[in-house]
Amino acid sequence: VAIHEGQATGALTLSRGPVRKILVVERGAPVYAASNVPGERFGAICVRRGLVAQERLDALRREAPASARTADLLAQAGLVPAARRPEILSGQVRAIAWSTFDWREGQYVFQLGRPPAARVPLRLAMGDILLEGMLRTFTLQRLAQELPRTAHLAPSPAPAFELYALGLRPNEAHLLSLADGTKSVDDLLRLCELAEREALAFLQACRVMRVLEDVE
User: Fold this and answer.
1) Can you point out the beta strands (E) in the chain?
2) pTM beyond 0.90
């Protein structure tokens, strides 16, 4: 949220023990991500999607210089068309970001700087990544710890994200309209048409993104 509001350009490095992940942003929007977790790398994603067999990928790497990028190798071999690459990279950026949403320890550092020039043009909406990621990853146990059922929520006078940019589904928009400060979280759960965990994750996401705020 801070990166979005500040329209920052640079690299956010998140680390926990030996795990290290990098999210590169341009004017507050994610444009690239990297991870030292083998399963989150471009080649592993292509193997899981059935675009290349692991044996074929290993052979391409053995034949190439150590500095060659996996994405370039797959493109040169005709295994990943250029038109498909942005879609795969978009999924990679989201997955790397979401994988850190349950972290409660570790280190982070943000370094200002321009994104690398030699990259696939990509620009993802930070609001979409936050909202979808929290809906996917937040558990009922965690939500019970972070969102009191007695809390009353109302629209923030200075939201960090504009509603039109979030692409809300009808049930989410309806739930948001009910959060007028007069109802507790428990009341909202009874009135909405979403499943309990989904509704709580949506409300907590709106709190984190300062679309909603706690009121007396």
Assistant:
1) 10-16, 19-26, 29-35, 107-112, 152-155, 212-215
2) no
